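Researcher: I'd like a structural prediction for the single chain below. Treat it as a standalone chain; there are no partners to consider.
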Amino acid sequence: MKGKEWYQTAEVAEEYEDKRFSRGGRLIDRREKEAVSSALGDLEGKKVLEIACGTGRFTAMLAARGAEVVGLDISDAMLSQGREKARVAGLSERVEFVRGDAARLPFPDGHFDAVLAMRFFHLIPNPDRYLREIRRVTDGRLVFDTFNTPSTRSIYNWLLPMGSRLYADEDVHAMLDRTGYKLADSSHDFLLPYGLYRAIPRALADGFYRIESELRATEFLGEFPSVSYWSARVS
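Model: Treating it as a single chain, here is the predicted structure.
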């Protein structure tokens, strides 16, 4: 998995949200949480597994919406940040953080009503393997995101130290078919890569986003979103 060692360092965990979700990154955070909330729907009383939960950015949100959440990550340092976030929000009783490998999930078959995997599929070399393991532990919904090609992300990818796995729409449809899922819904966002938004102030990011939203509504540029959100069910 790309960046496996990098994500586990204490320094990265401590600075992760400040670097990625401050300034213009707050817009990214808001848009991602809106997409996840819409895709998962009503969570009251549901058991939800979040894979690659990191610092608990989504974990706490899911618990606040009434879910019983297990956040799984390979990084102890990230999990420590997540536990503190849940504690501060008064959600510790609804959240459990577990260190583990998403390729070998430590849960029984059909244990969860839904699984969330954000910022995950761009890091893994063999998505089918992980999808089959996720399918084992849920009979319900899977929500995940991908970085896309063709898009401006392809250019930005050259500058990243780890790079990212990029997906075309047909790649996602094919891997869902291969692993026993049926696509329920999808949405697409951001023409410009995330890195640009993180580098600029929030007010400027909001202005850029308004302009690109109009461009994404056009027939041509609407075909090149840099990120997609997918909602699938076991077929």
